[in-house]
């Protein structure tokens, strides 16, 4: 098996990446150390804050390539314009001698607000600018009248510049660390990974017994996570590759990142995995006769070889295989009469077809209304929605900037009150760890504190070991850089904890003029605690909505969007389906972030977050997104291949409608039920309004029975039989050859498989929602249908 060899090569690549990153970081810090300790006196005088040079190195060079560093140069320059230049004017107007703890905190807060508010400013630029602001004002307050209003900010800028120069040199010597080379290597590894997975899936599909099939599937699944990481690594270097194109003209062939095109390979492989997971009868596969098996294996070998030979400078779509083999393969499918149990097998072959014939996304029809009044209404709704999103986005930006400015201001104020000479150490950790999005506040603060303590203790030990060799003690940082790289990749510490650990050690071993190491370490840990405490306090006061509440609201929003997606499943609404599916994917990913944060936040006096149940819901929603994606691919292929036969299309739409009614009504019910906070309060409200018979509406509760459209297994099976019959009639009308007929059989079967998958996941979601509501209301009897009826009835009373 090639799997162990691939895993070992992947492990070596991870070790090599971590080691190279640590060496580059160590080289950059060494350059800073040599310049500040052994450089000319003029340079030493200008670099008044070597500690911030080290901080700049950590912010820019960590896991960076040369392109990232070039971008970091521009961002540092832009940050200096934002941070240092206004500070020169402020110090000149105010006068450093008149600064107090209060005025310093206010100046820092106002400057921070101006820096963080723009949405277009890169996160690294914001962090560097905030760090500069903290140092300029806090040290000006410490030194008072001795501070030069112009030269002091210039020294801060020079310290930043030294860090940037060190980053560039470290990424160039001894040889350039290029993003295109890293991407090219990842492309090769991903191609090997994808080829290996593809081979294992084909072997599992062709296996003669369950034991072999399950073994192949298990081996393939062990490679999925690695493949996803490689693909993510390719995508994340897209911006860096653009920055490398300009100074190195010979890299122009590698200027385009292939991440999006490799995704076209990843998606069908995921479909094959889904097909094999859903295959329940014992192997071998029922439809796999000798002729079809031979065609699958022949085609599989060809595709596997083509995948393996993909590289960055070659086409990353699967090239056309031997036309005769392809034609022969599809000709063997045209006589198949699908049944429900055959759907997973045919869906597997459909995904194989996607590797050969990717549908043309440009052929998606745009639904344009011919009614002028309807067009005006749609335009008004679109403008209203755009304005709402713009206002919401502006409010979020304002609140993020206000929270950051208040956190920094309070950190500087309380840090300076505790220790005037070390006050800036309270604000600096808050400044350089600014987050680009919402974080798990307590968890991040915890790992930052742990990382700071670990790094500080390591720094003290390094000072003790190199007590007699002060000039070279920064060399002891090399092992810590390697350890910190692994800390950053760990689940326990992550990026925040790993970077805090690096900075904690660097500031101890690279410090100059801060007194004995142990005293400085205690002072810095205390100030860091003050800064993190202020940050947590501001986050709680200004953003009181818990992540668990946001996850609950996002869950309901996902059901609303999913309801719209289901309504768009038809031959005439493909454009709407694709648009709704993309929107759903974005919101499901957002819910995943809230779930991760909610699991990390403390419960206090609230009901514990039911992470297991939300994880189940997340899994089901993610699968439904995948089914919708493959369903849209099937629709696209059908429209391209068949040319549309209206009478049979209408019949197929009618068969699909039963599935849509069941799933859509269920999603509407889940949307309403998931927002109910307390069943006891709902029942009390319901009884208070005396809705046993709705006199005002002239209806009884039984009139709400259509909220959920229940479908028995017999109904579903009967609907599948009708769908297969109409599919057969549809296929019989195709007169363009057996190859095209075989492709249409696969597309129709894939559509049926996706509808079946959506029905199954709807039932799984129903179980999970019932479990979640029961968890939140342990003393109540849970009946989703009754709850939905009451919610709908109360809503109607309010509306009338």
Automatic annotation (TrEMBL):
Annotated Gene Ontology cellular components are:
plasma membrane
- Per the record's keyword annotation, is Nucleotidyltransferase included, yes or no? no
Cellular compartment(s): Cell membrane
Q: Which domain of life is it from?
A: Eukaryota
Domain Integral membrane bound transporter intervals: 411-538
Membrane topology per record:
Multi-pass membrane protein
Query: InterPro entries attached here?
Result: Memb_transporter_dom
Pfam families membership: FUSC_2
Segments spanning the bilayer are 21-41, 47-66, 73-93, 99-117, 124-142, 154-175, 398-418, 452-470, 491-509, 521-542
* Keywords assigned by UniProt, alphabetized: Cell membrane, Membrane, Transmembrane, Transmembrane helix
Q: What is this protein called?
A: Integral membrane bound transporter domain-containing protein
UniProt source species: Capsicum annuum (Capsicum pepper)
């Amino acid at each position: 098996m090639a799997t162990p060899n691939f895993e070992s090569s992947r492990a070596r690549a991870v070790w090599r990446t971590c080691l190279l990153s640590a060496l580059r970081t160590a080289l950059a810090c060494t350059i800073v150390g040599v310049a500040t300790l052994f450089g000319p006196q003029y340079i030493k005088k200008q670099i008044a804050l070597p500690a911030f040079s080290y901080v700049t190195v950590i912010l820019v060079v960590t896991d960076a390539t040369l392109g990232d560093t070039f971008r970091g140069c521009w961002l540092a320059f832009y940050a200096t314009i934002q941070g240092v230049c206004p500070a020169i004017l402020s110090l000149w107007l105010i006068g450093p001698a008149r600064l107090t703890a209060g005025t310093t905190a206010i100046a820092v807060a106002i400057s921070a607000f101006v820096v963080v508010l723009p949405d277009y400013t890169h996160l690294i630029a914001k962090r560097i600018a905030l760090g500069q602001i903290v140092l300029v004002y806090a040290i000006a307050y410490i030194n008072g009248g001795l501070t030069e209003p112009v030269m002091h900010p210039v020294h801060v800028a020079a310290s930043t510049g030294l860090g940037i120069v060190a980053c560039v040199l470290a990424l160039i010597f001894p040889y350039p660390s290029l993003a295109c080379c890293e991407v090219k290597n990842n492309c090769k590894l991903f191609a090997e990974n994808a080829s290996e997975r593809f081979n294992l899936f084909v072997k599992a599909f062709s296996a003669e017994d369950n034991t072999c099939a399950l073994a192949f599937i298990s081996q393939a699944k062990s490679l999925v996570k690695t493949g996803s990481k490689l693909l993510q690594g390719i995508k994340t270097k897209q911006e860096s590759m653009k920055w490398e194109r300009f100074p190195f003209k010979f890299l122009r062939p590698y200027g385009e990142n292939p991440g999006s095109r490799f995704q076209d390979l990843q998606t069908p492989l995921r479909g094959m995995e889904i097909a094999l997971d859903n295959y329940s009868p014992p192997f071998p596969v029922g439809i796999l006769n000798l002729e079809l098996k031979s065609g699958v294996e022949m085609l599989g070998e060809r595709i596997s070889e083509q995948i393996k030979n993909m590289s960055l400078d070659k086409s990353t779509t699967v090239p056309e295989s031997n036309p005769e083999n392809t034609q022969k393969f599809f000709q063997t499918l045209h006589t198949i009469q699908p049944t429900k149990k055959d759907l997973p097998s045919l869906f597997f072959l459909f995904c194989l077809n996607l590797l050969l014939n990717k549908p043309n996304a440009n052929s998606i029809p745009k639904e344009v209304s011919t009614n002028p009044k309807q067009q005006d209404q749609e335009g008004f709704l679109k403008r209203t929605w755009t304005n709402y999103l713009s206002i919401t986005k502006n409010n979020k930006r304002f609140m993020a900037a206000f929270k950051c400015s208040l956190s920094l201001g309070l950190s500087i104020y309380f840090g300076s009150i505790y220790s005037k000479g070390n006050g800036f150490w309270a604000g600096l950790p808050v400044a350089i760890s600014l987050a680009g999005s919402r974080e798990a506040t307590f968890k991040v603060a915890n790992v930052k504190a742990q990382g700071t303590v670990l790094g500080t203790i390591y720094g003290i030990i390094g000072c003790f070991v190199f007590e007699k060799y002060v000039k070279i003690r920064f060399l002891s940082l090399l092992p810590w850089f390697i350890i910190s790289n692994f800390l950053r990749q760990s689940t326990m510490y992550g990026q925040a904890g790993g970077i805090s650990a690096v900075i904690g050690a660097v500031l101890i071993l690279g410090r100059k003029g801060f007194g004995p190491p142990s005293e400085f370490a205690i002072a810095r840990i205390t100030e860091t605690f003050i800064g993190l405490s202020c940050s947590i306090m501001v986050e709680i006061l200004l953003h009181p909505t818990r992540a668990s509440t946001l996850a609950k609201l996002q869950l309901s929003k996902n059901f609303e969007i999913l309801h719209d997606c289901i309504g768009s499943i038809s031959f005439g609404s493909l454009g709407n389906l694709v648009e709704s599916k993309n929107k759903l994917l974005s919101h499901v990913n957002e819910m995943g972030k809230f779930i991760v944060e909610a699991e990390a936040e403390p419960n206090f006096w609230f009901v514990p977050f039911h992470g297991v149940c939300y994880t189940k819901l997340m899994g089901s929603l993610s699968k439904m997104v995948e089914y919708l994606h493959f369903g849209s691919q099937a629709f696209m292929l059908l429209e391209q291949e068949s040319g549309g036969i209206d009478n049979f299309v209408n019949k197929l739409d009618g068969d699909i409608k039963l599935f849509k009614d069941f799933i859509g009504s269920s999603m509407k019910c889940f949307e309403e039920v998931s927002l109910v906070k307390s069943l006891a309060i709902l029942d009390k409200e319901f009884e208070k309004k005396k809705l046993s018979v709705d006199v005002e509406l002239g209806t009884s509760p039984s009139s709400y029975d259509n909220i959920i459209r229940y479908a028995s297994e017999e109904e579903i099976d009967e609907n599948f039989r009708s769908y297969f019959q109409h599919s057969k009639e549809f296929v019989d009308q195709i007169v363009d050859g057996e190859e095209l007929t075989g492709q249409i059989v696969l597309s129709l079967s894939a559509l049926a498989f996706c509808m079946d998958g959506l029905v199954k996941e709807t039932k799984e979601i129903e179980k999970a929602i019932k479990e979640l509501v029961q968890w939140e209301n342990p003393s109540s009897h849970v009946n989703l249908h009754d709850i939905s009826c009451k919610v709908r009835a109360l809503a109607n009373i309010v509306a009338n």
